[in-house]
Amino acid sequence: MTKNYLKKLLVPAILILASNVSKAQHDPYFTHFRFIQQAYNPAAAGEKVNYICLTGLTHYQYRGYTDQTLRVGSDGDPTADVPTNQAPETYSFNINTLLNVDKKGRHQVGVGVSFLDDQIGFMKTTTMKAAVNYRIPVQGKFGFLAVGLEAGTTSFGYDDPKFKPLDPNDPHIPISGGSQSKFDMGVGVYYLRKTFLGVLSDFYVGASYNHLNAAKYNFQVAMANGQNGVVDMDFKRYLHLNVGADYQLGNPNWKLEPALLVKYNPKFQLDASVTSLWSETIRAGLAYRTAADALSILVGYQRNELQIGYSYDITLSKIRKVSDGTHEIYVKYCIPISFPEPKPKLYRLTPRFMGRGAY
């Protein structure tokens, strides 16, 4: 399974994505998926009233993987410059806030904007989308149900490809970059309860359906034979199901944070993590990802409105022979915002009413 996944993921297999062949994309992986739910569920956007929360994440899959095809073989050049870090490299940035619809805060709207840049080899995907959700209170203010929608654009294409074709005149090997942008949308629901079953706090469960319109990409690039060829890419719908909670241990300074993320497209993928948080400050834990056969070590720090996290994936397959592992860095900061109180109304008396006790 690992070998098949690697062939799909890394540079040599990207060759078949060109001309007359239609393939489906894979959405990026997030080891800190518990802390970046807005990236895949629009109903999770909006964390705090009177705060703007900024979240940045970088994910470097199989760091150090280098495409050596230009140097190997009977026609290879041992001194040729080779493309480095051809494994997946992902950048994500999210902004969100929570707005009160009424003065009592019984109904709220979450809004957010997300940016995603994901590159695998010479293949690049860039997404910009906005999310909005409406929150329905449940059990007074002890929980809520949110229904959300996201919409934006996703650009897919090749970024300066440097393939080494077996046949110098192969009509299926792109030698120039090209891309196309398409409308992209998704929907989601999210449910949160402050307490659950008497032992869990901040219990949540969410579901989202991304790439709902299943955009089809079709654009031209120059091929190795000197002619223009067509690149086809079909974006497949992605189903995400996630659940998590906090569990207070006997020692009041410690709590556990288990979380699960299920992905289906149309293959089943599972991400699981459990972290422990000490004194609401220091975080450490483990995670496992079935799709990439990785065991992750997570550490983090949080204080007030700042959160910082780092993870290292220990590759469990033979890919570790050509990789330095996977690194991910996550930072979140919530900026407090305040609105000035309205000035008191000023009443002025006109000469007609002065002295008559009108006010």
Return Rg in Å. 25 Å
Overall SS class? mainly beta
Order of helices and strands: HHEEEEEEEEEEEEEEEEE
Helix content: under 10%
What do the pLDDT scores average to?
Answer: 84
Instruction: Please identify the top-level CATH class.
Output: Mainly Beta
**What's the assembly state of these chains?**
single chain
What is the CA-CA span between the terminal residues? 83 Å
- Unreliable parts: 1-22
Write the layout of secondary structure elements.
Layout: H1 2-9, H2 11-14, E1 22-24, E2 51-60, E3 89-100, E4 108-120, E5 123-137, E6 143-158, E7 178-196, E8 200-210, E9 216-222, E10 228-234, E11 238-248, E12 254-264, E13 268-278, E14 282-289, E15 294-303, E16 306-315, E17 326-336
Parallel strand pairs: 1-10
Antiparallel strand pairs: 2-3, 2-17, 3-4, 4-5, 5-6, 6-7, 7-8, 8-11, 9-10, 11-12, 12-13, 13-14, 14-15, 15-16, 16-17
Overview of this protein structure:
The protein is mainly beta and 359 residues long. It has one domain: monomeric porin ompg (Porin), CATH 2.40.160.40. The chain is built from 2 helices and 17 strands. The protein has helices spanning 2-9, 11-14; strands spanning 22-24, 51-60, 89-100, 108-120, 123-137, 143-158, 178-196, 200-210, 216-222, 228-234, 238-248, 254-264, 268-278, 282-289, 294-303, 306-315, 326-336. Strands 2-3-4-5-6-7-8-11-12-13-14-15-16-17 form a 14-stranded antiparallel beta barrel. Strands 1-10-9 form a 3-stranded mixed beta sheet, with no helix packed on it. The chain is globular. The termini are far apart. 33% of the residues are buried. Mean pLDDT is 84; it is low at 1-22.
